[in-house]
Amino acid sequence: MAIETQPSIHGFIATxxxxxxxxxxxxxxxxxxxIEHAHREDDGSFTQLDPTxxxxxxxxxxxxxxxxxxxxxxxxxxxxxxxxxxxxxDGHTIPAEEFIASRIGHDLARTRYDxxxxxxxxxxxxEAPVRDASAFEAPASSHADRAPSLxx
Length: 152
What we know:
The protein is built from 1 helix and 8 strands. It is mainly β.
């Protein structure tokens, strides 16, 4: 069986996420995102290029959770799809695109945070598997300097 994949992006949240609701009551989060780019030089080094900026939208419960947990400047990884569309401005048809994320979380390579593994309300009747955590010792650190996790 083939591994199912979706397009993915990684970048940073460029504007504070905004939560709105569609006419039928569906939650919708919108944010501008930045994607960093680099050029590989002949000597193997990299030159940082200007970031590009794009629109990102998330719907339903994931939109509500992402609005609560993501903030301007946060680094993220998301999977979803690109939605191409057109709009009218001053009598001209303008092509545009947005990334519609179905899954999103903080970028592990660039974010420190703690994970809360307690079950969500809707999953209370499910029993979590028992794990032997004795092999792992968490480093002594302050929780104040860590961003909350995003497990959507």
